[in-house]
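In the design runs reported in the main text, the only information available to the sequence generator was the tokenized backbone. The following block is the verbatim input for one such run; it is reproduced so that readers can re-run the procedure and compare outputs position by position.
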């Protein structure tokens, strides 16, 4: 069961997680992208944008 909680500017995610990693969003033409390994093609992902 997926559960996401945001409390006092902190996030708690409970799900069947395979891997967790941090990446920098890069420019891609007039848009942006986040790179991920090919082995994750077709998998569902969460993208969480953090304030600096």
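Verbatim output:
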């Amino acid at each position: 069961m997926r559960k996401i909680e945001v409390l006092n500017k902190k996030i708690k995610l409970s799900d069947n997680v395979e891997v967790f990693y941090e990446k920098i969003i890069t420019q891609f033409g007039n848009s942006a992208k986040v790179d991920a390994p090919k082995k994750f093609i077709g998998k569902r992902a969460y993208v969480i944008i953090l304030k600096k």
